[in-house]
Amino acid sequence: MGKSSTRAASALVVGAALAVALASARDYAGSWNDGSRLAAVESLVDRHTWAIDESMFVVPAGITPSPYGGEADLRRHGTRDKLRIGKHFYSDKSPLPSLWLAGSYALWRAITGTTARRQPNRFCYWMTVTSSGLGYVVAVWCIFRLGGALRLAMPVRLALTASFGLATVALPYTRHVNQHMPLLAVAAALLLGLIHFAGAPRPRAAFMLGTLAGLGYGIDLGAGPLLFACTTVLALYRSPRLRTVSPLLLAALPWITLHHVLNYAIGGTIAPANTVAAYLRWPGSPFNEHTMTGVWHHSLPQAVEYGAALLVGKRGFLGHNVPLFLLVPAMAMLVRARPRELPEIIWAVTWSTSTWLLYTLTSNNSSGVCASIRWFVPLLVPGYFVIAVFVRERPAWSADFLVLSSWGGVIAVLMWWYGPWMKHLVPFYWPLQIAALMSWILCARARRHPVHAG
Predict the structure, then answer these.
(1) Of 28, 149, 357, 426, which shows the fewest CB atoms inside 10 Å?
(2) Residue 289 carries which DSSP code?
(3) Which of 340, 342, 344, 349 is nearest to 194 (CA)?
(4) How far from 89 is each of 262, 284, 295, CA to CA, in Å?
C-alpha cells in the first residue's frame, strides 16, 4: 500500500476515534471517582486551592443543572472519594492529571467567559473530551501506527485497531473523566517508541521514552511507577550505554519530581496520600484501613483467589476484553518462536504481571464500582501488542481474532451503554462468554480441518 493510501487510512482511524470520543462523552459526573477529580480541577482554577470543600462536586445542593445528572445519592451528598487533611477536604486522586485538566478548564473558561458552576454540564463534557476522549484518540492512533511498525498488512492493521477501540473496555471508559484512559494513551505511545528505539537507540528517542515514562509515573501511582521501571530496564538492555539511557532518566525526572512535590504539598507524604489511613477518618467515610487500597489485605490463599477473580471472575479483566483470550495460544507460540520483538514482549508481560500482582496484594475491592477492573485498562496496550505479533507470525489465527473481537464488540457496546461506573454485571455476561468460547472452538476446528472444494 502506498504512502497516500496509508495517510488516508490513518486519517480515517483518527477521524473515527475522534467521532467516538465526541459522541461518547457525557456531560455530568457519574461517580465518586470522576466527581473527586473534577472537584480538584474546579477548585484549582476558580479558587486557586487544592482544597475541595467548596466545590459543587462536594456540595452539589442547589446547583442547576446538577453536575451529577440524575444520580440521587450523588446529587445529595457529592463525592466521597476525598481525604480529610487538617481542616480541609482534598481529592484522593493523583494530582498530576488534575494540572492538565486545570489548564484545559482555564482555556475553556477564557474562551467561553463562563465557569464550571454556571455551566456544569458543558464543563463536564469538555473535561471528559480533553481527558478520556483525547486519551482514546491517541491510544487508537498509536495502535494503528504500531501495526505499521510491526509490518502488518493494512487489513490486519485496521482490524487490530478497530478491535482495540471498539471491542474492549477502552470504549466505555470514554464516557467519563478518569485517569486510566490518559495512561492508556501514554502506554500506547511508549510502546510505539520502544519498537522504534529497538531499531535506532538514539538519545533523542531515549528522551522521548523518558518523558512518556515519567508522565505515566505521575498519572497512576499503581501501574505508573512499574511502567517507568520496566521501560528503563528494557532501554538499558537495548542500549547499555550511559549517553543513550541518561536522557531517559533526565526526561522522566521532572515529571516524577513534580508529582512528589505536589503530593507532599497536599498530603505531607512521599507515598500516595490515599494510603494514609488517618486521612480517611471523617464522618461518613466509606473507607478505612480495612478497605483502602495500598496495604496488604490477604492471606496467601485469599490472595490467590482474589487475584484469579481480577482476571476471570464476574468482573474479570479477561472476560470483559474477549479478544485477549487469544493471549493463551499467543504466549505459548511466541515463547517457542522467539520473534525479534521478544524483549518488548517480556516488557509487556512483566509490566502486566507486576501490575496485576500489585493490586492483588494491596486491594480487596476489585477497583470499586466500575466496568471490569479499571486499574487494568492501560494493560490493553501490552495485550494487543502480543496479539499483533502473534497474528503476524501465525496469519491463520487472524480468523480466531476476528471471531473473538466480534463477541468482544457486543460486550463493549453493552458496557458503553451503561458507562464505566456500572453497578451491575454486564447483561447476558455469562451467555456471551459461552458463545464467544464456543464460536472460537468452531473457528479453531475449521482452521485445523479446512474443507477443500472438489
Answers:
(1) 357
(2) T
(3) 344
(4) 16, 13, 22
Q: What DSSP line would sit under 67-112, residue for residue? A: TTTT-HHHHHH----EEEETTEEEE-S-HHHHHHHHHHHHHHHHHH
Distance between terminal CA atoms of the chain?
Answer: 34
Average pLDDT, the chain: 94
Contact by Cβ (8 Å): 176, 128: yes
Look at residue 453 in the predicted model and tell me its pLDDT: 45
- The owner of cell 476446528 is 445
User: What mean pLDDT do residues 94-114 have?
Assistant: 96
Going by C-alpha positions, the residue among 174, 142, 149 that lies closest to residue 377 is: 174
**Closest among 227, 234, 175 to 422, alpha carbons compared:** 175
CA 454/CA 238 separation, integer angstroms: 52
Contact by Cβ (8 Å): 273, 85 = yes
Give CA–CA dist 143/382, Å, rounded.
10
CB–CB of 383/352 below 8 Å?
Answer: yes
The three-class DSSP label of residue 51 is strand
Q: Can you tell me the distance from the alpha carbon of 362 to that of 296, in angstroms, rounded to the nearest whole number?
A: 5
- Give the residue among 380, 420, 412, 408 at the shortest CA–CA distance from 188: 380
Q: Can you read off the three cell numbers belonging to residue 31? A: 461517580
> In this predicted model, which residue has the larger pLDDT, 401 or 448?
401
Instruction: Quick: pLDDT tens for 6-21.
Output: 899 999 999 999 999 9
Q: What are the pLDDT digits (tens) for 292-343?
A: 887 787 888 999 999 999 999 999 999 999 999 999 999 999 988 889 999 9
Asked whether the beta carbons of 147 and 392 are under 8 A apart, the reply is no
